[in-house]
Design brief:
- The protein is an alpha+beta fold.
- It folds into 3 domains: 42 residues, no CATH class; 118 residues, Serine Threonine Protein Phosphatase 5, Tetratricopeptide repeat; 121 residues, Carboxypeptidase-like, regulatory domain (Immunoglobulin-like, Sandwich), CATH 2.60.40.
- Helix content is 45%, strand content 14%.
- The protein has 11 helices and 9 strands.
- The strands form 2 sheets. The chain has a 5-stranded antiparallel β-sheet with strand order 4-3-6-7-9, with no helix packed on it. Strands 1-5-2-8 form a 4-stranded mixed β-sheet, with no helix packed on it.
- The protein starts with a helix and ends with a strand.
Length: 365
């Protein structure tokens, strides 16, 4: 490769001389042109040095002995993608690639990988169908009402005991108002011994559905949680000492989001006994929240969210990440926002910010 650089430099010098000779000849005719030889030599040096530096910088030759760590997530995923180019019929490989791209939040690439797996299986692989639905829901939660929802129903028909399909299937059924089916799916999932960080979320969904089924009264009767049925929820009142929402004790190294939620006086009458949802989302990546809690509407209230509150296993906020924290009073009791729900939001830097004030001061349009 050194030979190549020297050869390139020699050719560059030859080209520069071809340009310089006319300048030198014209310089003999007039003294004003005397600086021309120096300009030609300067141009030659610049071209020689510049060509060598630019080639080293932009070429794909491995000039440095050290390289990026071969075991980094990005390099492993890239290696798997290259392997699949030579083995395009590897169904398990495409499924693994789709899962890996989701972990890297490369959603368009994940969707392509799962669609490839779906085609290879002739539409008969539940994991491929669920993967497609998951990517679509992570990109746009509204897809659960459309294509993602249909994919989940197909996956459940093929694999009725798929934990991930049951999780999304419960959400799909709840969104379309089929609460008994949503409850049945969440209860079945709860009996499959889900991970500890997912179990509380499933229990919250079941409790919310039970409250809606039991309190299907017209306005004001729905949305009461099991806890509030045992202990009547107090209406919104004047600010007092903030109450700490129950939270699993995080380890010292665990990322934590803490907000003090208050309600604007102008919206005090809108709270009632409706549940309060506090969730963390990534403003740069639409989709399900990174963490969520369902609480009673008591104000002020200090809420702590950790990785154990993640909505989807493996998709949680991390230290140093910029997120948005949203507090919403669900007047219908439904986790999905509806027009007229009071809410507030605040930006939060995980690991840097401590207790931040979050005011519920406007309503969803």
């Amino acid at each position: 490769m050194l030979t190549f650089v020297l050869l390139a430099a020699a050719l560059t010098v030859a080209g520069a001389i071809a340009v310089a000779i006319p300048l030198l000849k014209s310089g003999a005719a007039a003294e004003a042109a005397a600086p021309a030889p120096w300009a030609a030599l300067a141009a030659t040096a610049l071209l020689v040095i510049g060509s060598a530096v630019l080639y080293v910088t932009w070429s794909n030759w491995p000039w440095r002995s050290e390289s990026a760590p071969a075991d980094s997530p990005q390099s492993m995923v890239a290696r798997l993608a290259r392997e699949l180019e030579h083995d395009p019929q590897n169904l398990e490989g495409w499924l693994m690639l789709g899962h890996s791209y989701i972990a890297l939040q490369e959603y368009p690439l994940a969707l392509r990988a799962y669609e490839r797996a779906d085609r290879l299986s002739d539409g008969k692989n539940a994991e491929a169908l669920t993967g497609e639905a998951e990517v679509l829901a992570l990109t746009d939660e509204g897809e659960l009402n459309g294509r993602a929802g249909r994919l989940i129903e197909r996956a459940l028909a093929l694999a009725p005991d798929s934990g991930k399909a049951l999780f999304f299937g419960g959400a799909v059924a709840a969104r379309r108002g089929d609460l008994p089916l949503a409850r049945a799916r969440f209860v079945k999932l709860l009996g499959m011994d889900p991970p500890p960080n997912v179990r509380p979320l499933i229990e919250q969904q079941i409790n919310a559905i039970d409250a809606q089924l039991a309190g299907a009264a017209p306005v004001g009767g729905a949305g009461t949680s099991v806890a509030s049925a045992k202990t009547p929820a107090a209406p919104a009142k004047a600010p007092g000492p903030p109450a700490e929402a129950p939270a699993a004790a995080p380890s010292a190294a665990e990322a934590l989001v803490r907000v003090n939620v208050t309600l604007a006086p102008s919206l005090a009458a809108a709270a009632g006994s409706s549940p309060l949802f506090v969730f963390v989302r990534d403003p740069g990546h639409p989709g399900p929240p990174l963490a969520v809690k369902r609480l009673e509407s008591r104000f002020p209230q200090t809420v702590s969210l950790a990785a154990s509150d993640a909505m989807i296993p493996g998709r949680a906020f991390t230290s140093g990440q910029s997120v948005e924290v949203v507090a919403r009073i669900a007047r219908s009791g439904n986790p999905v926002g509806a027009s007229g729900d009071p809410l507030g939001e605040v930006s939060y830097r995980v690991g840097r910010d401590e207790l931040v004030s979050l005011v519920i001061d406007h309503v969803m349009p």
